[in-house]
Design goal:
Elements: H1 5-9, E1 17-23, H2 26-42, E2 46-51, H3 58-65, E3 75-80, H4 87-99, E4 104-110, H5 114-117, H6 120-128, E5 130-134, H7 139-152, E6 156-157, H8 159-169, H9 173-186, E7 192-193, H10 195-205, H11 210-218, H12 222-234, H13 239-258, H14 273-282, H15 291-302, H16 310-321
Parallel strand pairs: 1-4, 1-5, 2-3, 3-4, 6-7
Pfam families: DNA_pol3_delta, DNA_pol3_delta_C
EC number: 2.7.7.7
Keywords: DNA replication, DNA-directed DNA polymerase, Nucleotidyltransferase, Transferase
Length: about 325
């Protein structure tokens, strides 16, 4: 079956079998995994994590699922990495679904394209388990999700403040949540937040934001992009949010190259279409082929899977978006 984020949150205590979480909203992934882990702790379920670097790593996943430790009766296994099982792995997955009713296999993937969603892997899980798209397509969905975050912080926003917050963050839920935390710290006695509070707080809190980084990247201004990136690092901006910003711009440029007439449908603001078109003329399309792997390296570095430093690879991504190449010795 398919569940949305809010439906999935209500079912974490009954999660069994196979769940796939996929999408590009780090806030939703983080919150759902946190809720699942809290549930596992409460029910004394053993948790393991496996990171996939090659298709052969799926063998270790199924070995773990089939061999519980002496100290636990149930196992929750998190699998991270955008590598789907081969034919043999898919066969083992089907066997696990049929014969293992008590354990839970959570597969965490980035956003998937339409072809991937139609694959035998996804179809098998959707028919026998749970697929959760980590997306919030509509404004009312984003506001519902952020309302829960605001409630956790003990605040509420009037409708004008919600509208301003969404426009300011261009639908980025993680950035919006960070702003809610900032406004709570800035106005600790204020329970109802208005536009003035948000504007004052965000203007006072930072000289540059990830939106400034986006603008500098699309304009191809390498020096300014690096300057903003360094400022964001020093001000404590999460690496995951900076990666989200960079991956969004890379994805938009690759999509616009394939669909040059569909800028508005891709979510590019009308006032910025010409900037994206100029960026495409400036960039070499062959470089697009290297971008997905570069983003995976950043993600692995942030999660501590690789020994590379995230800031080094992020700077390489920034240079690529500005039409330059950095050669970094590892």
């Amino acid at each position: 079956m398919k569940l949305d984020y809010l439906q999935a949150l209500k079912r974490v205590d009954e999660a069994r079998g196979v769940w796939i979480l996929h999408g590009q909203e780090p806030l939703l992934e983080q919150n759902l995994l946190d809720a699942l882990r809290k549930s596992w702790t409460k029910h004394e379920i053993e948790r393991q994590r496996h990171d996939l670097n090659s298709v052969s790593d799926w063998k270790n996943v199924f070995n773990a699922l089939n061999s519980l430790s002496l100290f636990s009766q149930h196992l929750a296994l998190e699998v991270h990495g955008n590598i789907k099982p081969d034919a043999n792995g898919l066969k083992q997955l089907k066997q696990y679904i049929q014969h293992n009713e008590h354990n839970l296999l959570i597969i965490v993937l980035p956003k998937q394209d339409s072809n991937s969603l139609k694959s035998a892997f996804f179809q098998t899980v959707e028919a026998n388990g749970v697929v959760v798209p980590l997306t919030a397509t509509y404004a009312q969905d984003r506001q519902r999700i952020l309302s829960i975050e605001a409630e956790k912080l003990g605040i509420q926003l009037n409708q004008e403040a919600w509208t301003w917050l969404e426009q300011h963050h261009e639908h980025n839920l993680l950035a919006a949540k960070n702003s809610l935390m900032r406004v709570t710290d800035t106005f600790p006695d204020q329970k109802t937040i208005e536009i003035d509070h948000l504007q004052q707080c965000l203007q006072d809190q930072s000289r540059y934001s990830t939106f400034d980084l986006s603008d500098a990247l699309i304009q191809g201004n390498l020096a300014l992009s690096i300057k903003i990136f360094q400022y964001l690092l020093e001000s404590g901006e999460p690496d995951s949010l900076i990666l989200w910003t960079i991956s969004k711009e890379m994805r938009l440029l690759m999509q616009l190259y394939e669909q040059p007439q569909n800028a508005l449908q891709l979510g590019i603001w009308k006032t910025k279409i010409s900037l994206y078109q100029q960026a495409l003329r400036r960039l070499n399309p062959h470089s697009f082929l290297t971008w997905p792997q570069l983003l995976l390296r950043v993600d692995a570095a942030i999660k501590g899977i690789s020994k590379e430093r995230p800031e080094h690879i992020i700077q390489q991504c920034i240079a690529e978006l500005c039409g330059k190449t950095l050669f970094i010795n590892h």
